[in-house]
Amino acid sequence: MSRIAGRDTKPEMVVRKLLHAAGFRYRLHVKELPGKPDLVFPKARLVLFVHGCFWHMHACKYGKPAPANNRDFWAVKRAGNVERDVRHRAALEAAGWRVAEIWECETKDAGLLEAAVVRVAGLLRSQLQEL
User: Fold this and answer.
1) Considering the domain 10-24+40-130 in this protein, what is its CATH number?
2) Residue extents of the structural domains in the chain
3) How far apart are CA 54 and CA 56, in angstroms?
């Protein structure tokens, strides 16, 4: 468990590189915000989480399998992650932030990754135009 990275993961770095290349600037892992979002776009009041499919139980081939050993522990651990995600999202939205997510499986497919980045870029542009 201690070797599992919580920040600067490969999927996160891929997304950061693409958004930066598109001209968007952001802050990383702002601890003052609930859930310490991976990317924070303060001007647009948008936060982005890059979730690992396994850890956050995404409904894809990477998120569905349950570990073979110590099943009860991992079921509770992963379900707790999902519940915490819901709480953090609600707290951020209540504070006036928009919340976006990109899943690890989306970063493994070029087409899905492009669509996800375009979706986030569209949210950012719409938010910045309202200012």
Assistant:
1) 3.40.960.10
2) 10-24+40-130
3) 6
Chain length of the chain = 131
Per-residue pLDDT of 19-46, as tens digits, reads: 999 999 999 999 999 999 999 999 999 9
Query: Is 44 in a helix, a strand, or coil?
Result: coil
Residue showing tokens 């087409």: 111
Q: Which residues of 20-35 are buried (b: 16+ CB within 10 A; e: fewer)?
A: eeeebebeeebeebbb
pTM: 0.91
**Which two structure tokens, joined as six digits, stand for 49?**
């989480």
Q: Can you point out the beta strands (E) in the chain?
A: 27-28, 39-41, 46-51, 98-103
